[in-house]
Specification:
The structure holds 2 protein chains of 2 kinds. Chain A is mainly α. Chain A has helices at about 1-30, 50-55, 60-75, 90-125, 130-145, 145-165, 190-195, 200-240, 240-250, 255-290, 295-305, 310-335, 340; strands spanning about 80, 85-90. The radius of gyration of chain A is 24 Å and the shape is globular. Chain B is of the alpha/beta class. In chain B, about 40% of the residues are buried. Classes of the chains: A mainly alpha, B alpha/beta.
């Protein structure tokens, strides 16, 4: 009962945030330039311009245009992407979103599966050799820009190995195009499609190999952030009185750390994970461009270069939604982890 | 003192803390003994090493602290045969120490606000110790019999009723030699044991408290829960480390009464660490006074209040206000607590002592039996 109220309250609180983002993106895109410019080129006769203006509602007063924009959003009309053969933005998002999500998920799995244990290891072996190695590893992750790291990774694990004729990781795309040319997606998630709809295990492995390098590259920053966060919050929790109490009960060090300390130390870490998930989607812009990944990021980059306002708006809105959702999920996980928050 | 009466004997305990400023000689030869069934008060001012002594007994001193030397002999008595085996806790393998902590010797800490784990239910936290230390096979069988009996009170067809009675008889045969229970039954039985414990510490509405989290309870209730956690495995020794200090006076009285009552119930020997002479007078029959990491005096409570022998104890007692006091100012022990990185030579109390002589500055006094039943560490004892 109380959990349901908690979820409802957080959902209601998310509405003004989403609404604010919608308004902001609209205003900002309006400032950039005349929206009509998007729909004409040098061959458009000048006499046709008023008609175009009218067709898109650009001759209406601002508040009417704002209303039209909002009602369009709610009806699923997010505009036409001029840089992608004039196809509707929603259609392209639906088409490319799974690729980005798949990549981000893999990055997130890398980050959580590696970051949390590494952080714990680092905290429990504070100031020992393993802790120093972890800290260098994490510092490197935080300091290296994604585009540089991605290029280096690709250069070594793909180009150099390929030139040397050694087994190497694929350098781009979601699967080996030559081998599976006519692949038709069902859900859009290649890992799911290949395994459950086609039952093609070699394709599944191929997809995994293609995900490895961009996934790790995108996740490295998050691994580093999670490791550092986990280490510091674990160290803090291990100094708490309830850890002394747990030890005084005669519990083994393992139980003290993994049962009593971990759950408390996860609370601040979860915040970071939630925020990181949002930035993974934006981080994908660079990773996808370098690894030629047919996802939203690559599409957004092209949209920016060709001032495709509708596409940029759509991408911005989507990222905002993901941020809001990720934070909502974080709030919910908080409630599960920490009983003090549930009723607050 | 005859050793068969003792349950704990500490000799020459030294614990140091290695800080950036230098080595803090927190405990320098602590001598303590606790007789079976006694309630001993361990008193002294803040920073004199009472809590470090308690944590040293359980070997819970955390870095940068380290127990350097000494002996902590625990005379463990077997529940069934009553056979007593002395164990030196400082020589135990860390894994064997886990069987002593929480099971044979347990501790109630000072601050009920910070010691329970905030993310687990009270019931879970108490049952955790039960699951860890107790063989619950008998409890599981008893629980099953109880469940069957309960079902008999409802409306049952005659045929079903006889089946249940048959089942009860079957389980009752198992009572003498209960089979190894499965984990799920064990967890349920542990919850029942935990709830019984909550009833014993007089927790209001124990069954709902079982499902509550620490932040939902008041300070007094949390302290009761901590006491329940400490007592649930029937320890030989219970250490209360300033267990009532963080509570307000009325709740303090309740908790002290509870401890007095529980002592009769469970028969544990108790060490009460406090700086409150009132608490000592109220609950303890034996007192050990500590000063700057050493034991200075040890005797029966009545004896201490009537005839303190060590100058420090005497000074301490004159500073305690009495009900019909007419004194304008209370006398104080001159000087301040010494810095334990560079403690005074000889007797650690000598710079503040009115009876100091040359030997006090050079030689550390040993804890000796000054008169029967009254131990003191002083070169020039009073009276």
């Amino acid at each position: 009962m109380k959990l349901r109220d908690f979820i409802l309250r957080r959902l209601i609180l998310a509405i003004p945030v989403v609404f604010g983002v919608m308004t902001m993106t609209w205003f900002l895109s309006y400032i950039i330039g005349n929206p009509v410019a998007m729909y004409i080129n040098t061959n458009t006769p000048a006499s046709a311009i008023p008609a175009i203006r009218r067709a898109h509602g650009f001759d209406e007063p601002l508040y009417v245009q704002y209303f039209l924009y909002l009602s369009g959003l709610f009806q699923g009309d997010w505009g036409i992407s001029t840089s992608t053969s004039f196809r509707p933005v929603t259609e392209i998002i639906l088409l490319k979103f799974p690729a980005t999500i798949e990549l981000s998920m893999i990055a997130m799995i890398f980050a959580i599966v590696l970051g949390i244990p590494l952080g714990i290891l680092s905290a429990t072996h504070k100031d020992q050799k393993i802790d120093h190695i972890m800290r260098i590893f994490a510092l490197a992750g935080v300091s290296m820009p994604i585009f540089w790291f991605a290029l280096m990774l690709k250069h070594v694990l793909y180009f150099q190995l390929a030139i040397a004729g050694l087994p190497h990781l694929p350098g781009g795309e979601r699967y080996t195009l030559i081998r599976y040319l006519s692949f038709k997606y069902t859900t859009g998630f290649l890992l799911i499609d290949s395994l459950f709809f086609y039952g093609d295990f070699t394709l599944f492995v191929d997809a995994l190999l293609h995900l490895a390098m961009p996934g790790f590259c995108l996740g490295y920053l998050t691994i580093a952030i999670i490791t550092r966060m986990m280490r510091s919050s674990m160290l803090e929790v291990l100094r708490e009185d309830y850890i002394t109490l747990a030890r005084s009960k005669g519990l083994t060090e393992r139980v003290v750390i993994y049962r009593h300390a971990l759950r408390n130390a996860m609370i601040p870490t979860v915040t970071v994970i939630g925020l990181a998930f949002g930035s993974l989607i934006t981080g994908a812009v660079l990773t996808e461009t370098i690894f030629n990944w047919p996802g939203l990021g690559k599409w957004a980059v092209r949209a920016i270069f060709s001032s495709d306002l509708a596409a940029i708006n759509g991408f911005t809105l989507l990222v905002a939604f993901i941020f809001v959702t990720a934070n909502l999920v974080v709030d919910l996980i908080y409630g599960v982890l920490d009983p003090r928050i549930r009723f607050g | 003192m005859a050793t068969e009466e003792l349950v704990l004997k500490i000799t020459g305990l030294k614990t140091n803390f290695y800080t950036y400023e230098g080595v803090v000689l927190a405990l320098d030869g602590v001598e303590l003994f606790l007789r079976r069934g006694d309630t001993m008060g361990l008193v002294g001012e803040t920073g004199c090493g009472k809590s470090v002594t308690a944590r040293s007994i359980l070997r819970l001193v955390e870095p940068p602290g380290k127990i350097e030397e000494g002996e902590i002999i625990f005379f463990d008595s077997d529940d069934r045969s009553g056979k007593i085996t002395p164990i030196d806790l400082l020589q135990l393998h860390p894994e064997e120490m886990l069987h002593v902590r929480g099971k044979r010797i347990s501790i109630v800490f000072q601050d009920p606000a910070t010691f329970p784990n905030p993310v687990f239910r009270i019931g879970t936290q108490i049952a955790e110790s039960v699951l860890l230390h107790q063989d619950l096979s008998r409890e599981v069988v008893e629980m099953k019999i109880g469940e069957m009996r309960n079902s008999l009170t409802g409306d049952l067809p005659e045929e079903r009723r006889s089946q249940v009675v048959e089942k009860i008889r079957y389980y009752e045969q198992q009572l003498d030699e209960p089979p190894e229970p499965d984990d799920k039954d064990k967890k349920k039985a542990a919850q029942i044991v935990a709830e019984e414990m909550l009833k014993l510490v007089k927790m209001p509405s124990p069954s709902s408290v079982m499902m509550q989290y620490p932040h939902e309870l008041s300070g007094g209730m949390r302290q009761r829960a901590l006491i329940a956690m400490a007592l649930v495995c029937n320890p030989e020794i219970l250490i209360c480390d300033e267990a009532t200090t963080a509570l307000d006076v009325t709740v303090q009285a309740q908790v002290l009464n509870l401890l007095n009552e529980l002592k009769k119930e469970i028969g544990a020997s108790i060490i009460i660490i406090t700086h409150d002479m009132g608490v000592v007078a109220e609950t303890c029959n034996w007192v050990s006074v500590m000063y700057a990491g050493t034991t200075v005096e040890s005797c029966a409570t009545v004896d201490l209040f009537a005839n303190p022998v060590h100058p420090y104890t005497a000074g301490l007692l004159t500073a305690v206000p009495k009900l019909h006091d007419t004194r304008e100012r209370f006398p104080q022990i001159r000087g301040t607590v010494p810095n334990l990185i560079t403690p005074p030579s000889g007797c650690r109390f000598h710079p503040r002592c009115d009876y100091c002589t040359e030997i006090c500055k050079k030689e550390k006094p040993e804890l000796k039996e000054h008169r029967p039943g009254h131990w003191v560490a002083c070169h020039n004892p009073l009276s």
